[in-house]
Amino acid sequence: MTAPGFEYDPRHFPVLLNEVLEALAPKQGERMVDGTFGAGGYTRALLSATDCLVWAIDRDPHVVPTAEAMEQEFPGRFRLLKGCFSQMKELLAEEGIDQVDGVALDIGVSSMQLDEAERGFSFMQDGPLDMRMGGDVPSAADVVNETDEEDLANIIYRYGEEHKSRRIARAIVEARREEPIMRTRQLAEIVSRAVGHKKTIRGKKQIHPATRTFQALRIYVNDELGELERGLEAAEQILSPGGRLCVVTFHSLEDRIVKNFFRERSGELARGSRHLPQANEPAAEPTFEMIFRGGKKPSQEEINQNARSRSAKLRAGRRTAAPAREREEAA
């Protein structure tokens, strides 16, 4: 159900757009949340599809000009809320909104961020080693230059699933003794020398040897996995009965969190999870029912048009009338 007249922003191709719109199924007058505004692809599609209202959320100050232009284009129907999508309940409460009919989340770095060398997300263009999506947090350069070797190896292994993490961490520590590591190409070369310049293989796709290390640093700097866990719980709290939640992920770490969230909340997850009640406790009533089983992947046609979509996966659930679970505190 691609919106009539909808055109892609040349900086950003909304991944699995038709599938997201089909699952969200926006109707006239409904209230929708685009929790990861970016270049506004999903927001524009929702506003173009029907006469709905959209509140978009983003912590990246670079999106403000795009949002201001969209406010002019869709007067009275769109508003940008500055912050993290995990804060959607609090941000919407400030707008006088306690329930919505749909939430869309596109997890990870946007094409717009990757393409801007000065943001430091990619090694494809040289730039400052930053990677911050927003907020006053340590940069990737801070992490690379100040974290001890063991902790750095653990970050690269946990968030990048990089099996040569200890070798990479050792190389980084040795290199920073000579001079601080402040540029993306500088770090990419250090990692490449540590693991070998030859590209490694993921399935049938070749990837640069620094890909997993850069992914790990970006996720760590922006607390992306913690943000996702908190965001899913927040969406559960603000969705009205029948409300839809759509989440697009781009790698296994994110998808595992989303899959387990939906399995648990829909009652599909087998006993044994620390989140589930003990045998002598009543099972919690499901708060979601799945809109479709498993995760949807992009078509080959979409992959041909946008190579970055090839690892994407969409999962979607519909809110039941059961009370939201209490939000879990970090251990």
Strand-helix topology:
Blueprint: H1 17-24, E1 31-34, H2 41-49, E2 53-58, H3 64-73, E3 78-82, H4 88-93, E4 100-106, H5 111-115, H6 140-146, H7 149-160, H8 165-178, H9 184-195, E5 200-202, E6 205-207, H10 211-221, H11 224-238, E7 239-249, H12 252-265, E8 288-290, H13 300-305, E9 313-319
Parallel strand pairs: 1-2, 1-4, 2-3, 4-7
Antiparallel strand pairs: 5-6, 7-9, 8-9
Overview of the molecule:
- It is built from 13 helices and 9 strands.
- The protein is an alpha/beta fold and 331 residues long.
- It has 2 domains: 17-112 and 224-319, Rossmann fold, CATH 3.40.50.150; 138-221, Orthogonal Bundle (DNA polymerase, domain 1).
- The protein has a 7-stranded mixed β-sheet, sandwiched between helices.
- The longest helix has 15 residues, at 224-238.
- The protein starts with 16 loop residues before the first helix and ends in a 12-residue tail after the last strand.
- Residues 1-6 have low confidence and may be disordered.
CATH superfamily of the largest domain: Vaccinia Virus protein VP39
Q: Structural class, judged by helices and strands?
A: alpha/beta
Strand content: 5-15%
CATH architecture of the largest domain: 3-Layer(aba) Sandwich
What is the average of the pLDDT values? 87
Subcellular location: Cytoplasm
Binding site for S-adenosyl-L-methionine: 40-42, 58, 85, 106, 113
GO biological process, one term: rRNA base methylation
Pfam families: Methyltransf_5 (PF01795)
Please give a quick description of this structure:
GO terms for molecular function: rRNA (cytosine-N4-)-methyltransferase activity. It comes from Emcibacter nanhaiensis. The chain is an alpha/beta fold and 331 residues long.
